[in-house]
């Protein structure tokens, strides 16, 4: 059994993906080839914004956004402690200070009620993370940011395809970022990512930073980076994209079916009002997590833990004085979460096998303890 079944996905779409890759091999424009502009236009139209800018990775997209906002030493950026480290490490990469805000227990997303107390005169941006596949309350987040003159950057690495009140993830903030890492809801065959914005001037600046700080060759007004996405990776996205709506629908149905069958045995993810969920990871909470995971492994069922340690507990953030106990909701989540196999090709028989194994594991461990 596959945790994320990329092999079946490729076989389903092989003719389209192979044709797209062959076209790149034929024209030989491996950097900034025509597929880049085609993909950017298609994704901007899908999200409902004016501009999409492809980049080399989701991490690069966040760093480029911060650099385009001139955020650096002396500035602060608010984010969450329960996420992949890239959401916070980019703040260090530009020389700013990360300020963490705890999460909601139900959604794993930023607790909007805690944001305002974390804002100081040095706060320049907020990076909420749309974790596991659904968005935090961007209506409230944007209102708070507007009151304080702060830019919001959605980290939508796990939520591309999700919606909130009818608007798509990557289309609700001044700048949004996503990742095309292979395991993401829309993935390529390597690293890749994108930025989204309606702001033309900001998009031009991000485009310059993406390409060594300049839009014209041998003219570099900004400190930039080599952040371009390979043409071959754009070709893969274009080969997969016609099937993306179907995959999103499958994710919704599979996630809902998991929750219906598991609700009485463990804590299941709750879809917040106004949201849809793409279940980049289908994540439950269980007591005795390692025992449960080991029993599932013995039954041939793979699992994963996103994430076993909060970002503020990582050694690299020690100079900022954070300690265990500072963010109790996030820390408890890190102790309890367990992700189950999740992908659009997960059949009902496989899902029933997973559900039965998890129910048996939870029940038997509870009886022993």
Query: What profile does the largest beta sheet have?
Result: 7 strands, mixed
What would the CATH topology of the largest domain be? Aspartate Aminotransferase, domain 2
Number of distinct beta strands: 11
Structural class: alpha/beta
The oligomeric state of the chains shown is single chain
Q: Can you give the helix content as a percent range?
A: 40-55%
Strand order of the largest sheet: 1-9-8-5-4-2-3
Q: In the residues, how many domains can be counted?
A: 2
**Range of strand content:** 5-15%
CATH superfamily of the largest domain: Type I PLP-dependent aspartate aminotransferase-like (Major domain)
**Terminal-residue CA separation:** 29 Å
Task: List the total number of helices.
Answer: 12
Element pattern in H and E: HHEHEHEHEHEEEEEHHHEHHEH
Spatial shape: globular
- By CATH, the architecture of the largest domain is named 3-Layer(aba) Sandwich
Give the integer mean of the pLDDT values.
Answer: 97
Rg from Cα = 21 Å
| Low-pLDDT stretches | none
Q: Just give the CATH class of the largest domain.
A: Alpha Beta
């Amino acid at each position: 059994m596959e945790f994320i079944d990329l092999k079946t996905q490729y076989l389903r779409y092989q003719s389209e993906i192979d044709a797209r890759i062959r076209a790149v091999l034929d024209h030989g424009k491996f950097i900034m080839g025509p597929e880049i502009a085609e993909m950017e236009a298609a994704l901007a139209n899908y999200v409902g914004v004016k501009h999409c800018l492809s980049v080399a990775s989701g991490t690069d997209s966040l760093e480029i956004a911060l650099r385009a906002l001139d955020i650096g030493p002396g500035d602060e950026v608010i984010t969450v402690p329960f996420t992949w480290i890239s959401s916070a490490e980019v703040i260090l990469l530009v020389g700013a200070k990360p300020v963490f805000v705890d999460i909601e227990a139900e959604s794993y997303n930023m607790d909007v009620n805690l944001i305002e107390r974390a804002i100081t005169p040095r706060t320049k941006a907020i990076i909420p993370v749309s974790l596991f596949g659904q968005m935090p309350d961007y209506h409230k987040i944007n209102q708070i940011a507007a009151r304080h003159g702060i830019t919001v950057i959605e980290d939508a690495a796990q939520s591309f395809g999700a919606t909130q009140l009818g608007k798509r993830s990557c289309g609700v903030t001044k700048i949004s970022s996503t990742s095309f890492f292979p395991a993401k809801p829309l993935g390529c065959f390597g690293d890749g990512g994108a930025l989204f914005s309606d702001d033309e001037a900001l998009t031009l600046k991000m485009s310059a930073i993406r390409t060594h700080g300049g839009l014209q060759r041998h003219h570099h007004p900004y400190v930039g980076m080599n952040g371009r996405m390979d043409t071959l990776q754009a070709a893969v996205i274009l080969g997969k994209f016609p099937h993306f709506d179907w995959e999103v629908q499958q994710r919704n149905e599979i996630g809902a079916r998991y929750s219906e069958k598991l609700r009485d045995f463990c804590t299941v993810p709750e879809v917040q009002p106004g949201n849809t969920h793409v279940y980049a990871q289908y994540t439950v909470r269980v007591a005795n997590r390692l025992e449960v995971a080991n029993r599932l492994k013995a039954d041939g069922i793979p699992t994963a833990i996103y994430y076993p340690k909060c970002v503020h507990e990582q050694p690299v953030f020690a100079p900022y004085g954070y300690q265990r106990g500072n963010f109790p909701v996030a820390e408890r989540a890190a102790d309890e979460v367990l992700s189950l196999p999740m992908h659009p090709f997960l059949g009902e028989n496989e899902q029933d096998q997973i559900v039965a194994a998890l129910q048996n594991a939870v029940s038997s461990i509870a009886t022993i303890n």
